[in-house]
Task: structure prediction
Amino acid sequence: MCIYAQFINRFKYEVKSHTCRGIQVAIREFDISYKSIQQRFGDIDDIDEIRQCYVDAVNVKTNWGYKQLIRELEEILEDYR
Result:
């Protein structure tokens, strides 16, 4: 399984446990998920650009469900695989 798939799986785990708590929580979950994957598998290329794309995407509205947060990240990562 590629590192991006591992990252999405970890993000799914994190985001399902803290849904609907706002944009800052969604961004923190992204960071927590990345740090976990980084420790196990190493760096992800272009993570700063990926993170900024994610922040821009989730800042569009204030109340996101976990399925939409996951979908947003999956769409962003499609460009980097």
User: Anything to note?
Assistant: The radius of gyration is 12 Å. The helical segments are 3-16, 23-41, 47-58, 66-78. The mean pLDDT is 88.
